Amino acid sequence: MNPADLRRAAAFYAIAKAGGVTAAARTIGKSPPAVHADLRRFERSVGAVLVERFGRGMRLTPSGRILYEAVGRAFAELDRAAGEVAAGNFDSPLRIGAVPGFGRYVLADRLLAALPVKRRMVLRTGSHDQLVEMLAAGEVDLIVSYRPVIAAPFECEAVAIEQLGLIAPSGLESFDPHALAAGRWVTYEEYEFVFAKWFAAVLGHQPEHITRGDHHDELEEAFASVRAGRGYTIAPVEAVGPGLVVLGTLVSNSVYLCGSRQRMRSDDSRLLRQILATCRD
């Protein structure tokens, strides 16, 4: 329903409640012809006759009665929400997007511990590009990603450090990162960034070739493949669970909080900085 239909719905509701156009016009402060025109346009938009003449007044048709009750409920909900906002009792949900590894294994637990029980949270995960799309579409208010958003009107700030490591099945004591051609690698969505970051820091260059084995959308399933001895992977060590071991050098990677200028100065952004402060060492 567009704004014009909402205005016309209000005119229809006033007519039904007052019992006539003239009485409704006095209630909403418009001329009777303007109120009558809003009614007719509203009827055309819904495709039904909603009121009919009855004696000197007007009464609802069966279709009008159904719509009158629905519009009444909608206006009552608007009044309730407006009252809560005016009284300062309305808390919008914390809507945040995060890359899967950091979001699930680091951010989620910290948010659940810090948020009041009655404060709702919407945590969505996705690739960096998907998160940027969510942010631009207004589906989330802030995102946490492994690289900044270089695009107006968004701002970004490094808020945490995650450690990337070579992940192998338990029982393996050593691995030569220079013998990459002999290794079999388990990959996952957006593994390219993580692998490239680790290889650049450990080897000083990108390997010409790696042998790819299993590929999964999610990091958890990639770990299952590694645990089963089907290859190695490189991932945030915070996510590593039983049956896995971290080998070799750890590589630090910055994690960024991004959002609009207004959102980056909000209480929610300050909360995120606070709970992630322990992830900077």
From TrEMBL:
Native species: Sphingomonas panacisoli
Molecular-function GO terms, alphabetical: DNA binding; DNA-binding transcription factor activity
InterPro entries: LysR_HTH_N, LysR_subst-bd, WH-like_DNA-bd_sf, WH_DNA-bd_sf
Signal peptide start-end: none
Protein name (Swiss-Prot/TrEMBL): LysR family transcriptional regulator
Keyword match Ligase: no
Assigned keywords, A-Z: DNA-binding, Transcription, Transcription regulation
Cellular component per GO, a single term: protein-DNA complex
Domain HTH lysR-type: 1-61
Domain of life: Bacteria
